[in-house]
Amino acid sequence: MKERKKWPIVLVWWILFISLVAVVAYLSFQSGEDAKELGKQTILQFAESQNEGGLVSQEYLDALTYKIRQSGRVIAFIMIGIVGTITIHISFYKSNWLARTTITAVVLVGIAYLTEWLKKYIPSRHYSFEEMMVSILAVIVGFVFVSVVTFVFKAVKGFFRLIMAGHG
User: Fold this and answer.
1) What is the DSSP letter of 122?
2) For 50, how many CA atoms within 13 A lie in the half-sphere containing its CB?
3) Cα 105 vs. chain centroid, distance in angstroms?
4) Cβ neighbours around 68 below 10 Å, total
5) CA distance 92 to 113
6) In the chain, helix, strand, coil percent, each to 5?
7) Whole-number Å distance between alpha carbons of 45 and 150
8) Which residues contact 77 (CB under 8 A, 6 or more apart)?
């Protein structure tokens, strides 16, 4: 009965994980010009508001666009790392820890690697080893965050069980 109640939760996590990966893939695989145009007006309005409505130089706008896009990449891949780790671990909870961890790491690093490597085949996009490493590091941060929280939760739970067993 427990299995039947669990599948909707697992399904929601898979939908969230696949959606995050799909959004990142969509943004990563656009042509360079389409990617630049996507947020150009919003970034321009943001830059003008930061300069109190004054004119902003193209150099400033380009630097701000780069910072926003790189920050967005890091946040997106951390989220993929967090959601992907949770999704895989709750989907395969009966598997041993090493198998779940290995599968999770391979899947997450693979996604981060492929979203950058496949840019080689997209017109006006370029492959960047540095950006690939940032993406891989971000999914690892998400993975480690979930792993540490899970470990701490289990350690605290075990500690309280030990205390309660001593009082029983």
Assistant:
1) S
2) 11
3) 13
4) 15
5) 24
6) 85, 0, 15
7) 41
8) 24, 112, 134, 135, 138, 139, 142
28, amino acid identity: S
Residue by residue, pLDDT tens for the chain (168 residues) are: 456 678 899 999 999 999 999 999 988 887 766 666 767 777 877 777 777 767 778 888 888 888 888 899 999 999 999 999 999 999 998 888 889 999 999 999 999 999 999 988 887 788 899 999 999 999 999 999 999 999 999 899 988 888 888 765
Instruction: Take residue 118 and report the two structure tokens written for it.
Output: 């496949």
**CA geometry: angle 117, 118, 124, nearest 5 deg:** 105
Closest CA to 61 of 42, 75, 74: 42
State which amino acid sits at residue 158.
Answer: G
Q: Which residues contact 91 (CB under 8 A, 6 or more apart)?
A: 10, 13, 14
Take residue 25 and report the two structure tokens written for it.
């893939």
Give the C-alpha distances (Å, rounded to integers) separating 49 from 40, 58, 71.
Answer: 14, 15, 19
Contact between residue 48 and residue 56 where contact means Cβ atoms under 8 Å apart: yes
Separation CA 65–CA 67 (nearest Å): 6
Q: Residue 57: what are its φ and ψ, rounded to 5°?
A: -75, 155
